[in-house]
Amino acid sequence: MSKTICLNELRPGQRATVRALRATGSMRRRLLDIGLVEDTEVECLGRSPAGDPSAFFIRGAVIAIRAADGADILLAEEAWD
Questions:
Q1: Neighbours of 46 (CB within 10 A)
Q2: CA–CA separation, 34 vs 37, rounded Å?
Q3: Structurally, how many domains does the chain consist of?
Q4: Quick check: helix, strand or coil at residue 61?
Q5: pLDDT band at 81 (very low <50, low <70, confident <90, very high)
């Protein structure tokens, strides 16, 4: 069974699947434009030295997303070995 987490809770090397976007307005449009739609797999590649933003692998591209924006992206965390 998977649990719901926010994008900014993913640690480097972890993967999850997008379940919903809580963002509104122009930020919602930007997130949709980069492919963050329901059932999209996202992998955290790493964090900047200061901890924000984090780099994510989304639909074949590496995208940096700030923690404040990542809090509005809900994911279904997959079970890890």
A1: 13
A2: 9
A3: 1
A4: strand
A5: very low
Tell me how crowded residue 11 is: count the other CB atoms within 10 A of its CB. 9
> Containing domain of residue 66, as a range?
3-77
The CATH number linked to 47 is: 2.30.30.90
pLDDT digits (tens, 9 = 90+) for 14-61: 999 999 999 999 999 999 999 999 999 999 999 999 889 999 999 999
Q: Which residue has the tokens 């999209």?
A: 40
Helix%, strand%, coil% for the chain, nearest 5: 20, 40, 40
Distances (CA, A) of 60 to 40, 41, 42, 57, 63: 11, 10, 10, 6, 10
- CA-CA distance, 71 to 52, in Å (whole number)? 12
Is omega for the bond preceding 49 within 30 degrees of 0, making it cis? Answer: no
